């Protein structure tokens, strides 16, 4: 076809945050601050957990360290390219770079999805079966769940990356997104993408709804158990163990629902940009703060780390 070119030589034009030059420097500083704050917060979580034996031995924090690692990869996949485009006043990305960005974006995002389900199951065992918690949530079980989350997410992303890399694309490719994702690329392909779209709709929905079902069932059983606790103090203690995770779950899935499952008639570029920024930047930045602000164990670990740091500096 005359309007096709080799995908490995093509460039893709991404959505620009703003076309007004006077705002581009402002957005650059804002996004750079968000990126650095996200890296700092998530690196601190990983560092705290792996330097504190008490936290590292707890399955919840083992999962949390991998969630923070996935968030670091997630933001490092999307934000640096947005910053480069703002600084250079360009909107383009090479096709190979776009595929690489999409692979790591999907892998880290799906890993978040699976890890949130693992953490919900962990809370279910802790609240509903506390006497069997150590046996059920063994280190071997946690390694299996975390490894499975990364491997399944990586294979899922590799499948779409390979399928899209074999497609032909029109000469002019302008996608109304801030970063490369499966659906926008499929829309602008000159090849027949019906089968890939069908796969994305069925497998993608199952990939999302499977972990979400685990979370919903886990919390239904958790709240059923909490309601049977006779004392108010006992109920509050049980709820407090789940509060941070539940807040992250609500943020994560509500944003995904708005981003991928809104009716086409209600879509607008401004709305899509806002939701994309919320999903790609704000949520990974908030996660460390949600888990630390009301978490006494993490606060205690920070105090212990600061104490060891002061002792080391005095030597």
TrEMBL record:
It is a multi-pass membrane protein. Residues 41-291 form the G-protein coupled receptors family 1 profile domain. Its main location: membrane. Keywords: Cell membrane, Disulfide bond, G-protein coupled receptor, Membrane, Olfaction, Receptor, Sensory transduction, Transducer, Transmembrane, Transmembrane helix. The chain crosses the membrane at residues 26-49, 61-79, 141-163, 208-226, 238-262, 274-293. The keyword Metal-binding does not apply. It is found in: Cell membrane. Belongs to the G-protein coupled receptor 1 family. This is Olfactory receptor. It comes from Notechis scutatus (mainland tiger snake).
């Amino acid at each position: 076809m005359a309007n096709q070119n080799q995908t490995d030589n093509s460039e893709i034009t991404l959505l620009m945050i703003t076309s007004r030059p006077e705002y581009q420097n402002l957005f650059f500083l804002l996004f750079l601050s968000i990126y650095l704050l996200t890296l700092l917060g998530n690196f601190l979580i990983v560092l705290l957990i792996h330097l504190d034996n008490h936290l590292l031995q707890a399955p919840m924090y083992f999962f949390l360290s991998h969630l923070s690692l996935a968030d670091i990869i997630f933001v490092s996949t999307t934000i640096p390219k947005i910053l480069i485009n703002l600084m250079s006043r360009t909107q383009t990305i090479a096709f190979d770079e776009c595929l690489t960005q999409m692979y790591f974006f999907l892998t880290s995002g799906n890993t978040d999805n699976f890890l949130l389900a693992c953490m919900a199951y962990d809370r279910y065992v802790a609240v509903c079966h506390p006497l069997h918690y150590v046996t059920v949530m063994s280190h071997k079980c946690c390694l299996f769940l975390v490894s499975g989350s990364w491997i399944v997410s990586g294979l899922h992303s590799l499948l779409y990356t390979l399928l899209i890399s074999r497609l032909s694309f029109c000469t002019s490719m302008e996608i109304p997104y801030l970063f490369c994702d499966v659906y926008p690329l499929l829309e602008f392909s000159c090849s027949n993408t019906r089968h890939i779209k069908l796969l994305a709709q069925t497998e993608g929905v199952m990939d999302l709804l499977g972990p979400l079902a685990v979370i919903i069932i886990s919390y239904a059983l958790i709240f059923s158990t909490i309601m049977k606790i006779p004392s108010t103090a006992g109920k509050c203690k049980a709820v407090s163990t789940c509060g941070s995770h539940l807040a992250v779950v609500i943020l994560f899935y509500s944003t995904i629902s708005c981003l991928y499952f809104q009716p086409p008639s209600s879509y607008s570029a401004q709305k899509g940009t806002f939701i994309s920024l919320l999903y790609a930047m704000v949520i990974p930045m908030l996660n460390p703060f949600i888990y630390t602000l009301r978490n006494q164990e993490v606060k205690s670990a920070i105090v212990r780390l600061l104490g060891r740091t002061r002792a080391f500096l005095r030597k």
